[in-house]
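Supplementary Methods S3. Complex input for the GDP-alpha-D-glucose-bound model.
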Amino acid sequence: MPTHKTIIVSNRLPVRIEKDGDKLTYKSSEGGLATALGSIYKDGDNIWVGWPGAAFESDALKAEVTEGLKKESMRPVFLTEEDLEKYYLGFSNQTLWPAFHYFLQYIDYGSENWDSYVEVNQKFADAIAQYTNNGDTLWVHDYQLLLLPAMLRKKFPDISIGFFQHIPFPSYEVFRTLPRRRELLEGMLGADYLGFHTYDDMRHFLSSAHRLAGYPYSGNRIILENRTVVADPLPMGIDYEKYEENASHPEAVERENRYRKSLGSQRLILSMDRLDYSKGIPRRLRAFDALLERYPEYREKVSLLLVVVPSRDQVPNYQSLKEQVDELVGKINSKYGRMSWVPIHYFYRSYPFRALGAFYRMCDVAAITPVRDGMNLVAKEYIASRKNQDGVLILSEMAGAAKELSDAILVNPNDKNQLVEAMHRALTMPKEEQKLHMSIMQETVRKYNIYNWVKLFFDNLKAVKKMQTTMSTTPLTAEGQNELISKYKSAARRLLLLDYDGTLVNFKNDPLACAPDDELMDIIRGLSTHNDVVIISGRNHEILDEWLGSLSVHLVAEHGVWSRTAGEEWKMNSAANAQTWHNEAREIMDFYVDRTPGTFIEKKSNSLVWHYRKAEKGLGEMRKSELTSHLKHMLGERGFQVMDGDHVVELKPESVNKGRAAEKWQETTNADFTLCLGDDTTDEDMFSALPENAFTVKVGPGSSHARFAVENVKAVRKLLSELIDV
Ligand code: GDG
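Predicted complex, serialized as structure tokens:
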């Protein structure tokens, strides 16, 4: 039997393949993710699947690379030059990247790269399928692979799939501008668990899934037809100790000494990012210029250490950004520079890991002011590297990291004046105050480290899978139906609990147009001769009486407020004495009706219902949450139940619901065979309340507490007709 494995998937494998003469060498990446997942993908049969970092053309070379990577627990997905141009530089980095970072002016809305994006995601899916067995766990990373979860779901319907988005998820208003928005969402929703850096990213995703793909959600659960998916904020951390140690490593110290010799003794502000317009480098430079202008005392005393790591330099926007940065640096250096002092030490290259330790040690201030950033790990690395607890972090509010690091000097990167004053404040902050803030931030970064993040991700994915199984139903197959019929035959007393709308009859626009047809009347009549049949509905008792009163069946109306034993009078449930609470509740609901166009209140004899189907999408949901918590707060302790139905919020005394009613009929009849059919959330109360051996059947798609599911009203009628024949 194969053991279950974990497969990590990302666009790029965490490896650098270099040519050493004729031989290829494989150097592991030191990136945070690779380090944290090292203990996972290198364990047992686990693997990491991704692009190996260069376009290997010949089959011989591909075979060699595949063999070499195998020893590193990696499996390659080979991409052609064309794939890289269209899928990677094209759709990923000229459509998704600017859109997700709110750079609308840079979004390429053209369709020419879309096919390639689909094809490459499919290449990944096909490659992964070769290594995957049912029972494995897949973890897909980032925006280059948004379609992959659904492609994998198609191949492996029951497998555990997690997804993590490393960049922001934009507001619905921005996301909806993308022509392929629906496909992208459906792709992501192939996963069971989706992680984002911040609560806002998660919220934006939920709102897009709801508004653009029509999926309802409750809390952070998205209800798909046959699965429930969870979206969650899970901010990524760093390997704290690794950075802490790196900063005091002898090589980092030696590098600091060496750099200092050429830089001189001025104080340093660190600026370190990949070359990217989202990182706000030109704004930062302009602010530094203004700092030297406004506070001349910093001239010759303070320099900016500007490290820009080359990135995506084939994309035109990145090329012009590079020119802009070059120009600004030249301008500032020529404006203030002296023989003995260079205002900006500018390096356009990447450095070895030990050099980062030296940079983090050397700089009194780190100015991390992206215009938009998913998280920003440099901010956390700087904190972990400050062993003496001095140093000041200036951090953009627009970086995900700002949500955790409120002890930094937080700035709006678009406010130049604020940036200048932040730099001034950082340079003049007393050591004691630096320590105070730094120690608090260190505690946070140490605690929520990357190992913790990885563990939580897998734990959460597992919990979602478990939740899905408790909410999953199996279709009522021929085999299940045979079992049902044989139990039905041998039972001494049989109870049939049947919901009405959506179960025995289809929904119609006019609720009064759902009167029972002849076929249904025959079925109910046929069943009621040998069984206790209870029609249990949310409708008022007058209409049930009119439609079904002539039959020899028990009736339950308004979810249990009214009931009628066959052949007797209607009775009101004694727990449901209405009038005393109506006025109070009505006042609260009126308040929400006044503020939410399209909503109204329906008064039933023992419940009040607020309808919001016609309210603006999103606004209705928001008011629903407000109203629900308002009602719970005001009336919850007095034994009322606030029920969240399909575009309705219903308030009623707690002791009244279909579950209680079903329980009561189960007790009264003491039946040894129970069949319960229902289609919506109020029927879930019945499914949960009945004994385990009851045949609970959900009608239509969606997760449920019922044991079985049938497709629709037609299937219900067929099943019931067969029972009559028995
Ligand atoms: C994406 C999201 C999110 C930098 N220069 C050198 C070097 N680095 C390392 C840093 C840091 C990493 O690169 C950069 O990470 P960031 O988080 O700052 O930014 P992105 O590359 O844009 O990453 C971002 C991240 O994913 C994780 O989810 O935080 O928001 O955009 O670790 O130390 N490393 C070496 N030499 C350098 O010159 N060796």
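The first strand starts at residue 6 and ends at 12. The mean pLDDT is 92.
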